[in-house]
Each structure stands twice: as structure tokens, then as C-alpha cells.
Amino acid sequence: MRRRHLLGSLLLAPVLTACFASAGGDSSDQGGDGSRLRVALAFPPAENLSPYGADATLLSRLGVTEGLTALDANGAAAPALAESWRRENDRSWLFTLREATFQDGSEVTPAAVAAALTHATEARPAPAALAGVTLKAEAAGDAVRVTTKAADPVLPLRLSSPNLAVFAPKAYTAADVDPVGTATGPFELTKVTGSGSAALDRFDDYWGGRAQASGVDARFVADGTARANALRTGQVDIAEAVPVAQAAALDKATLRETATTRTTSLQLNTESGPFKDPKLRAAAREAVDGSALVKGVFEGYADPGAGIYGPAVTWAEGKRVRPTGRAAAARPNGTAITLATYDNRPELPEVAQVLQQQLQKAGFKVTLQVREYSRLESDALGGKFDAFVGARNSLVDTGDPVGVLASDYTCHGGYNLAQLCDKKVDKAVADADLVSDTGERQDAALRAEATILATDAVVPLAHQSIIVGVGTDVRGVRLDPYERTLVGTGTRR
Q1: Are strands 34-41 and 238-239 parallel, antiparallel or unpaired?
Q2: pLDDT at 4 over 60
Q3: Which pTM does this prediction carry?
Q4: Which of 168, 199, 287, 363 could disulfide-link 23, Cβ–Cβ 3.0 to 4.6 Å?
């Protein structure tokens, strides 16, 4: 049985009177085909809805944007604006476009797509999907030729990233991209009100068919209690990322649980401090009980940590490689460590508190630091903490399983919280990155994962599920382990 914080969620219910009145259509239409959808999203725009940063997934979840490819349920590249593609040589791919129209009425042409991808390559900082990659796009008859500086066997996966969504030529200025009325998805962004709300209308000329909802009224509500209670009181039809502590306030029939590729992990600083010693890292690993976190913190909405890739990565099932050559654990004998995490995800401080108790029971002396993520990231990346608790979606950036290993665990990785620099790990990741066949690349990624886990630089704690609150009269919500989609052509009430 899962614990539920029912009393707390009811006592803390914020008042959202009239907050979810329609911004883009007639909110009196309460049912039937064509009704507008009212959606509460968890994260407000941080970069003016630029597709080149974290806001890109907001646009894709609302059905505004799409790229040349998409990810299917198994994590493979699937057709989107490109109906097919083929590899010409090690560095060149040819993508054949389908007939499609931009939301401003102009045609999706090879020249327009090539220009859109070129703008993405020129963005600074570089979009996560293009980290370490140099590519060139150009029109080639009825297709787009994409050439990379070095061989990139996962380019079709890379092009599925929300960062590489395609917009009409008029969207691009010297400094920015304007997504209002310029994308290709089933819903057209018509109005954005700061970081508070956005209105979308159905795009009737969408190549994939006419959406069943006439539009979407989205509100960005950072408070999880507010999102849950807006659904409970009928102010919204869909509430994204309902905190586990608030789930008891909702009718069970409105809860949709989906396993994700997001893993909560304990990262140990291998470069400096006590955890430079692999024997103390092994002691920390042995002290951690992930099942206690799943039951006590995530209230059953997670699986115990099995690796960097969780059970939502279906191709890893039954194929995981057991780590070998781990160091023997030493006695901590009161070794003092600093454990840090952030509070943007409400479960993480509670995870850190439980870990503090587990590590102290094993003999460590633990000081806990909790900050807002933007005030913590630079110190974490700079190795200022001995240990760090974070949640990471392993496939959100590119869909490529090797990509997250390279960025998070190699000597020159850009998000290496563990400060790991190990020759065996670098070789295993580099070897995996050379493999082009999808199945063989996945197998190579699992071998590299085992090499990383053998260092005890990272201790996977839990593989999280997301809880989406969905009104009982709503159908067709697109629940996605990669957290890229939410509303589509079949979403309706």
C-alpha cells in the first residue's frame, strides 16, 4: 500500500479562482468534440519559449513543434516532418520530406528546413542536442542533406530532439526565434502572457490530421499542490507532474502513472574529498537502500535503482551487464562529507534526508545542503560537494543512450557531476559511440554503463514515474517516458 498525504494536500489547497478561464477561445464550451483543453504545466518558461533551451519541451508537450524525426515507444527514430531517410556515407544523410505546411501558411520546403537547422547550429549556447556535434544542412531536390563533421551514426535520433524543431522562415531573427504561429504541429501558439500562460488554437492544415480539440489554454503553475487542486476542483482538464504527496487528494480515476527514463542518483565526487577513495565510494554504495526510498519517499511511484537506464528503457530489460572489479568497502570511521541537492523537485530534499540517515548509520558524518537548482548547479559542476543527489532523464536530449554517458561520466563531459575521469570508462563510451547498428549500440551502451557503475561514481537510487492528473472526461493524453509529449491530435474532452 502506498502512503498518502491526504490531510496536508487538502489543507494547503490554493485558491485559483478564474485562473484557468480561456485565453484563446470560449471557455463556456464544456464538452463534446472541439472543446478547448485546459492544461496546467509544472515548469514556467525560463527562456521566452526559445526552442534552443529547456523551454523546447514545453512547446513539444503542447503539440506546437516537431522536427524531422520523433522517438517511438522503443526509443528508435520514427518519421515526423521527414517521411523517410537514408545514410549516404559515414557523414552524410538524406531526409525526404513529407508534404506539410507551416502554421503561417507557407510550405515546408527543403530550403526552409535546411535554414531552420542552420539557425540551430548557430545558437549560443549550443542546444543540448548538438553538444559536441558540427553539422551542415542543405536542400537537395525534394530532400534535405545533413552532413556532420565526424561520423554520427545516431543522427536520426538526434534530429528528434525538441531543440531541433523546425519553424517557418519568418520565425527567425538575428537574436531569437518566435514560435508564435510559425511551427508545424497540430496546435498553433497564438498568445504568450509572460511566464504565466499561453493560448493555442487548432491548426487545421496539420499534415497529421485535424486535432479533435479546438485549442489549448495552458497555465504554468510551479506549485504542485495548486496543480493537483485545480484538477480536483475542475479548473483544469490535465495537470502535469502531480507530486506524489498530493495524489491522495485526487480521484484515483484521474491519475495516470507512467514510467520515465528519469533516474534519481547519488553522484560521488571522484576527483577530490573523501570519495576520491574508491573504497569509501563502495562504503557509500553499500549503505544506500533504494527500496526504502521507493516506499518512503516516492510512495511506490518509482522502481529501485538498477542502473543509469531504468525499466522504462525497454530494450535494456534482461540485457543489463553486471559491474565487475569494484573496490572493497572501507569503514567510514566518522568521515565527514557534504551532501547537496535542490528543491525544484520536491522529492529530492526528502531523498537527501533519508540518505543522510543511511550514510550516518554506516559511519559517515553528513552535512546536508539544499538550494534552488540555479543557485546550486555551478558549485555542483565545479566539484564543491562530496556527494550530490539529482534527477536526470537519460534520453531526453537526443534519445541516444550513449549521449548521456559521454556528457555525464567521461573526462571531458559537460555535465560530469561525479568529476569522473577514468580511462576504462572513456574507452567503453568511445567504443559504444562508434557503433551504428541500433541493437548493437544499445548493447555497447549497457557494457559502458557497467564500466561506469563499477567505479561507484554514481549510485542509482530510483527510477521515477510521473503522475499526470487527467479529468475523467478527457481522452487521448500522450503519456511519454521521454517527457516530450502530452497533447496531440487525439487529445479531447
Answers
A1: parallel
A2: no
A3: 0.79
A4: 199
Q: Give residue 185's pLDDT.
A: 98
Q: Where are the alpha helices (DSSP H) in 62-209?
A: 110-122, 155-158
User: What is the separation of C-alpha 119 from the centre of its chain, rounded to a whole number of angstroms?
Assistant: 23
Q: Compute the distance between CA of residue 238 and CA of residue 40 in angstroms, rounded to an integer.
A: 6
Q: In the numeric block, which cell numbers belong to residue 393? A: 532523464
Q: Residue 436 and residue 487: Cα distance in Å, rounded? A: 32
Residue 339 CA to its chain's centroid (Å):
24
Calculate mean pLDDT across residues 97-126: 96
Q: Residues 411-447: pLDDT tens digits?
A: 988 789 999 999 999 999 999 988 888 889 999 999 9
CA 379 to chain CA centroid, nearest Å: 22
Residue 3 pLDDT level (bands cut at 50, 70, 90): very low
Q: Is 456 exposed, middle or buried (0-12, 13-18, 19+ CB in 10 A)?
A: buried
CB 341 within 8 A of CB 351: yes
Please report the pLDDT score of residue 314 as a whole number: 83
Distance CA 161, CA 184 (A): 15
210-212-217-221 Cα dihedral, nearest 10 degrees: -110
Neighbours of 289 (CB within 10 A): 16
pLDDT score for 192 = 94
Q: What is the pLDDT of residue 310?
A: 84
Q: From residue 337, give the alpha-carbon distance in Å to each of 7, 162, 226, 332, 460.
A: 36, 38, 36, 10, 19
Question: β-strands 143-148, 135-140: how paired?
Answer: antiparallel
- 345-368 core/surface letters (b: 16 or more CB in 10 A; e: else): bebbbbbbbbbbebbeebebebeb
CA distance 131 to 133: 5
Split at pLDDT 50, 70, 90, the class of 372 is confident
CA 465/CA 241 separation, integer angstroms: 9
At 196 the three-state DSSP class reads coil
Cell of 167: 519553424
Residue 7 has pLDDT above 60, yes or no: no
